[in-house]
């Protein structure tokens, strides 16, 4: 049926109707007083979302662009950095860092496993000459459904005293607590198509005072992604270059919705969706790829053993018009991923689980009692 497509992937995520309607308005001049008021309101609400009094800057870019902006604004060629790599996106930050001539040391974990905070502690404590300039962490590793222990790793960075903590919060911001000021995070990058509940196209970089001090001596070339220019403009409720006006209409409404729900309620909702999804997956005789105690609140990865992951995805799309995400790199064809991030409700999870059960039955899966997935999810939701 036309127009019944349902996104259950970790991005892009579903967009509320009120946000879509806001984006359908005629654009106005991005140098006008009216648009300046919109920028000012958005900026204040972004600070609320990041739990910070520091700068939160908007870029016309993806989350990857936001992270690259963080690297080139606060570091110089030859700088030594520690990069956590336990999935596709941790791996990507290593590649970006090398592309700009940084001296990269990776702390790795098997895909599906969390980074070991003690490995960071060991490296940082051994750095007596303070040559490590930054520690770069993917908080929620979207490729595997793992939530890394940012708080503990950050405590070791703070004990080091010199290194910046640079965080990819692309699929954690808005889903799990990331209190920038309380934890003293120096740079937090995110993207619009995740917890923000709007389409792709905007990247966000939150910058603390320690990072701004590093900006003063950073020598990597930059122009369009020069965050100093964005700060100067944002302080005047403006932008250094032409912004995506209609996306920002949508962002204005989405942030209002998030404030109305409240931070704690958002975090609790994502936690319940995660718990219900994982319980349902187990009820259907499948196994989540990551352990419960390190589960991402954005996405649940599943490695089926009795049917092919891609057969599940294609059948879900063909029969129910529900999109699930696949595996990446060596996990391609081995796992599928269920997104439950942003504008996702209990009804959405129940719908997806019911369709998943029908799909498994159609493909000959014999590992579950009929209705077990819905029963397991409902048990979580009624508590």
TrEMBL record:
Q: Name one GO biological process term.
A: glycine biosynthetic process, by transamination of glyoxylate
Domain Aminotransferase class V: from-to ranges = 12-328
Q: Does the keyword Nucleus apply?
A: no
Q: Which InterPro entries match?
A: Aminotrans_V_dom (IPR000192), Aminotrans_V_PyrdxlP_BS (IPR020578), PyrdxlP-dep_Trfase (IPR015424), PyrdxlP-dep_Trfase_major (IPR015421), PyrdxlP-dep_Trfase_small (IPR015422), SP_NH2Trfase/AEP_transaminase (IPR024169)
One annotated GO molecular function: alanine-glyoxylate transaminase activity
Which cofactor is essential here?
Answer: pyridoxal 5'-phosphate
What EC number(s) is this enzyme filed under? 2.6.1.45
Q: Give the sites modified to N6-(pyridoxal phosphate)lysine.
A: 194
Pfam families per UniProt: Aminotran_5 (PF00266)
- The record's top EC class is transferase
Keyword tags: Aminotransferase, Pyridoxal phosphate, Transferase
SUPFAM superfamilies, alphabetically? PLP-dependent transferases
Would I find Transferase among this entry's keywords? yes
What is stated as this protein's family in its record?
Answer: Belongs to the class-V pyridoxal-phosphate-dependent aminotransferase family.
Recorded protein name is Serine--glyoxylate aminotransferase
According to its UniProt entry, this protein's organism is: Crocosphaera watsonii WH 8502
Tell me the classification of the organism that encodes this protein.
Bacteria, Bacillati, Cyanobacteriota, Cyanophyceae, Oscillatoriophycideae
């Amino acid at each position: 049926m036309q127009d019944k497509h349902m996104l259950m992937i970790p991005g892009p995520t579903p967009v509320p109707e009120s946000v879509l309607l806001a984006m359908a308005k005629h654009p106005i001049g991005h140098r006008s007083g009216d648009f300046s008021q919109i920028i000012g309101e958005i900026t204040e609400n972004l600070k609320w979302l990041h739990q910070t009094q520091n700068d939160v800057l908007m870029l016309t870019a993806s989350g990857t662009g936001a992270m690259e902006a963080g690297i080139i604004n606060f570091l110089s060629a030859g700088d030594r950095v520690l990069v956590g790599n336990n999935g596709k996106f941790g791996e990507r930050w290593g590649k970006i860092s090398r592309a700009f001539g940084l001296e990269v040391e990776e702390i790795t974990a098997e895909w599906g496993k969390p980074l070991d905070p003690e490995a960071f502690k060991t490296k940082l404590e051994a750095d007596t000459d303070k040559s490590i300039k930054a520690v770069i962490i993917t908080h929620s590793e979207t490729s595997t459904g793992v939530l890394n222990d940012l708080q503990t790793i950050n405590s070791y960075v703070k004990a080091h005293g010199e290194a910046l903590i640079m965080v990819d919060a692309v699929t954690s911001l808005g889903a799990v607590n990331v209190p920038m000021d309380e934890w003293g995070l120096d740079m937090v990058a995110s993207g619009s198509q995740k917890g923000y509940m709007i389409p792709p196209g905007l990247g966000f970089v939150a910058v603390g005072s320690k990072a701004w001090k590093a900006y003063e001596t950073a020598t990597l070339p930059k122009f369009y992604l020069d965050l100093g220019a964005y700060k100067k403009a944002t302080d005047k409720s403006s932008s250094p270059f032409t912004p995506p006006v209609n996306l920002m209409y949508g962002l204005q409404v989405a942030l209002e919705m998030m404030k109305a729900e409240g931070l704690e309620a958002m975090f609790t909702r994502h936690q319940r969706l995660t718990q219900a999804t994982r319980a349902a997956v187990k009820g259907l005789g499948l196994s989540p790829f990551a352990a419960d105690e390190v589960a991402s609140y954005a996405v649940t990865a599943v490695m089926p053993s009795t049917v092919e992951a891609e057969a599940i995805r294609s059948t879900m799309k063909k029969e129910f018009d529900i999109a699930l995400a696949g595996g990446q790199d060596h996990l391609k064809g081995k796992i599928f991923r269920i997104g439950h991030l942003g504008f996702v409700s209990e009804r959405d999870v129940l719908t997806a689980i019911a369709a998943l059960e029908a799909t498994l039955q159609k493909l000959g899966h014999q590992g579950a009692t009929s209705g077990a997935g819905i029963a397991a999810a409902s048990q979580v939701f009624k508590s």
